[in-house]
Amino acid sequence: MDKTLYFKTLNQRLRAQNRAIPTLLIDLDRLDHNIALVQQKLKAGANLRLVVKSLPSPDLLHYVMERTGCRKLMVFHQPFLSDLAQHLKDNVDILLGKPMPVRTVRYFYQHFAKNPDTHFDPYRQVQWLADTPKRLQEYALLAAETGQNLRINLEIDTGLHRGGFATPSGLRAALQIIHQQQNSLVLSGLMGYDPQVVKLPRWLSSPAKALAKANQIYQEFIQIIREEFPALWREDLTFNGAGSPTFGLHQNSDSPLNDVAIGSAFVKPTTFDIPTLADFQPACWIATPVLKKMRGTKLPGLGQLPHWLKTVFLFLGESYFIYGGYWKADYCYPPDIRINQLFGASTNQSMLNASGQHPLEVDDFVFLRPWQSEFVLLQFGRIVTVRNGEVSGEWRLLRQ
Q1: CB-based contacts of 239: which residues, under 8 Å, 6+ apart?
Q2: Alpha-carbon distances, residue 355 vs 5, 320, 359 (angstroms)
Q3: Radius of gyration for the alpha carbons in the chain, expressed in angstroms and rounded
Q4: Are strands 150-155 and 126-130 parallel, antiparallel or unpaired?
Q5: How far apart are CA 263 and CA 193, in angstroms?
Q6: What's the maximum distance between 2 C-alpha atoms anywhere in the chain?
Q7: What whole-number distance in Å separates Cα of residue 12 and Cα of residue 25?
Q8: In the structure, how many helices (H) and strands (E) does the chain have?
Q9: CA–CA distance, 354 with 358 (Å, rounded to integer)
Q10: Residue 397 burial (CB < 10 Å; 0-12/13-18/19+)?
Q11: Domains in the chain, start-ordered, CATH in brackets?
Q12: How far apart are CA 192 and CA 255, in angstroms?
């Protein structure tokens, strides 16, 4: 569908709704397209793990899980974990995407209330991420307090240098602690995130070389477990890695991963307009109504701008004040609309300018495309779904 027609249709459908407020939209047809591409590009034999921070809605997660058969999630926020634990069944595995302070882990278990309808087991179904020997010792003490083993996934550094076990000797020390604490800790696998593969400057390394290096480090660490700590080795260990920017590269490489994390690729905010996701379609939008419309442009202290300025700067032809603004997002429709930099952005009523070639009226909607999904989606209280250009439903967001 033509871009102009696409947004004009959405505008008409939103104007027919019983309320006009800033709204986060997800286009289910585009989402389905991206789901199909993920399944096509996923490494053979690897499990898909959905990144919850990028898809922070139980309904959205359920939608993708049902269409992919995925039963694995990556969680970065304790309140999200607590919310999900009340609704997920006993066949879902959760891997923490970053290390949690031991107080937060303790809080999670102290406030977990078992749902008899789901049978979720927070000890059997959660893998806690550990990045240092100190954190391992803290988790071991907590496990002793609870009288339950904690499953531990070790964060490893495959080139990102954001923490985790970076050397063979460091990994051996961590494995030794787990071996000594087998009454408290159970090794569940490794996690190595690799966005540097596509973000390094080309003069420093090509994606192919960066990926090969990351894979080599990962494989060496796996061998240390297999050969030097056979008591900890199991065939079902989780070897997680990748992410939306790099998951497709693992398909045709000598990748050791058996567990691949993907989130933002499903909705493709602007940060993910990258070559490895070129075939994916933007699937999420912010729509917000026009509250006020004015001819020309008036600014505090200046009044109406002179006609010659509007002739030179065509976008000053009309002014609009919208409901809200200042989101981490780019204005995308009408195509020539932009924030007035002199007036400044506002979270209450942002002032926009446009040429008038794509006229808007009060109560029409302006559309923006988020820079990211993991934070922006949470600002709207709900997600409105669209199918075939029609508003089709509402999805709730995870509790914070």
Answers
A1: 189, 190, 218, 222, 256, 257, 258, 259
A2: 19, 11, 8
A3: 24
A4: parallel
A5: 13
A6: 80
A7: 14
A8: 10, 19
A9: 8
A10: buried
A11: 3-23+281-396 (2.40.37), 28-267 (3.20.20.10)
A12: 12
Beta bridge partners of 187: 152
SS3 51: strand
Report the pLDDT value the prediction gives residue 357, as an integer from 0 to 100.
79
Q: Does the pLDDT at position 310 exceed 70?
A: no
Chain segment 132-164, per-residue pLDDT in tens: 999 999 999 999 999 999 999 999 999 888 999
Residue with tokens 């069944």: 89
Q: Give one DSSP letter per residue of 305-342, joined into a string.
A: PPHHHHHHSGGGGEEEEESB---SEEEEESTT-EE-TT
Average confidence score pLDDT of the chain: 92
Residues 5/266, Cβ–Cβ less than 8 Å: no
Cα–Cα distances in angstroms (integers) from residue 393 to residues 59, 74, 242, 345, in the given order = 11, 26, 32, 31
The three state secondary structure string of 206-260 is CHHHHHHHHHHHHHHHHHHHHHHCCCCCCCCCEEEEECCCCHHHHHHCCCCCCEE
CA dist., res. 187 & res. 176, Å (int): 11
Structure tokens at 252: 């045709």
119 φ/ψ angles, rounded to the nearest 5 degrees:
65, 30
> Following CA atoms 365, 368, 370, 371 in sequence, which dihedral angle do they give, to the nearest 10 degrees?
-160
CA distance 216 to 141: 34
Which 3 state secondary structure label does DSSP give 366?
Answer: strand
